[in-house]
Amino acid sequence: MARYFNGREIELLAPAGTFEIFKEVIQARCDAVYFGGPVLNMRMMRKGYNLSHEEIVEALDIAHRLDKKVYITVNNLFSEEDVEEAKEYLRFLDGARPDALIVQDMAVLELIREMELNLPIHSSVMMNVHNLEMIYALRDLGVSRVVTSREMDLQTAKLLGQRSGMELEYFIHGDMCSVHGANCYFSSHVFGMSSNRGKCMKPCRWDYRVKKDGYVYPAEYPLAVKDMFMYEHLPELIESGITSFKIEGRMRDKEFMVMLANSYGEAIDRYIDDPIGFDRTVDTKELHNNRKRDFSTAYAFGKPGLTNINRRYEGTGKFYSTGKVFSTPTAERELSEKRVEQLRERLAEVEQPKKTKAKLAVRVNNMEQARMVLELSVDSLYLPGDVFEPDKPFTKRDIKELGELKGDSKIYLGLPRMMTELHFDQYDQLLGGERLPIDGIIVTNLGAIRRYNNTGYPLIGDSNLNVYNHLSAQLYANLGLTQLSVSPEMTLEHFATFASRCKTPLEVVVHGTPALMYMEHDLYENTELMEPIAEEDNQYVHNNVLVLKTDQGENPVYRDQHGRCHLLFAKELCYLPLLSEMSGLGISSFRIEGATYSVEQLREIIVSYQQAINGSDSRDDMLGGLKPVYAGYTLGSLQFN
Q: Which Pfam families match (predicted)?
């Protein structure tokens, strides 16, 4: 089955959570169905869902007899323990012959290459593809279709599709995240349940209050977005050149999914038959009456602002397919001496012949911090691509000044987490002119690796590349990266095994308040458009910083120069007591995330880490006398097995 409009293929892609649902949905007015198998996909939380090996084979036979396609999701991050299982599963899938796999982890691409398998690959939305260079890089790696970033508007999709010639897939209906794909680590740090490994506990659906400038605002569910609804905008979707129109809903029930597939399929057919006389609203009332939340077109036509947030019909943390509460506000666990000892014992068990003295790196937010870092002769100074307000981005003059001060220290220039075509244009100009006094570039996405690999500046990978196993690390090393940051979601067992097997130099973020969520959505807009309902000061950060508050704590939110928001830890990550054991694993660099500290606070933290690395701290205190600046210390995801 295939649909065409002016010679362009249009595919309606529907989800199925079980074999019984698949058998009904595949008969509906869709062109293709996607589902997960028994392992390694992003919907592993609900028992009885996903298909067995036998059901996959039968589903493929049913679909192909109907001249329809099947895509199988192998779209979570793999641990080292998952690699052998992944090999067996991919061998099975190679024999079963699905029409494509939907993939997040670069390890899948590496395994398919190593095993010489013939499996077409589509990049998952969790790859967060958002620029032309990323599409080119994935094409070079054998990917034939890209699922676009959720934040991509239709005009950008049209531009990228036309320039690249790549098939694009775009979400048109269903549950959306408020955070950029694969840039949410909240669930893993609070519960040990990784959102990138199919086990998200949905802290975005908690009941928060927004605080800023001493006032409380009635935001209620400020991260809880509405469901995507593009039924009335099928002409614009088709005009944009998108190939596949994707419905979300692998956890939804059979009747609901069949209704959606039939409504959208019937509308597409009507538009193809009579585009001038097309009625956009035929099934609007039925879809609205059967909605799970209110509707939005999300980012399809530009930044939606607060209109994208679900106030009236929110499930308050409920996983709406079942009506059960998924999770309730939970505090980040406090660092404990008992847990530190357990971690030390486990890490000491790992044999590692490549023990070296680790270097110390510090990411800053302004020139005052940067000068102090160089004054302390820190090994590596990281200048961010995303600078938190009210500080301003580092200028070329700033970089030159720091170059004159750096001595034996190295300076690395960071790139923004999300890079638009404008960002590439700007960095092309900066990096393509006179040689800057920097020692490398911190890359944040696959496209930046492709673009800047031949500039003469060494490239190191930032933490949001989500490297979780030695196979993805090897792929990035083959692409030219000289160092990689370990995934911030690593649990203890996964970290120990990964570090012992990875040959690429690794960096670990050991202190500070890294971003738990990184989003296009502007939380500060709540304070600009709403009237306050109470007065209350922030507990740990200045009142001019927005915080999201529950009864379990306050998470500060910083906005960068691009208008994007970074929700940070309430507590501070602190691995100071574990540095010796991590060095024993061969970790080559320890990073302090210093952006939110004052100069004097950051100075004290750096000195403590320098003393620990050099073995010159003789104090008996587990933390060398270092006291938290914010709500306490936490071990983040590393405290979980």
A: Peptidase_U32
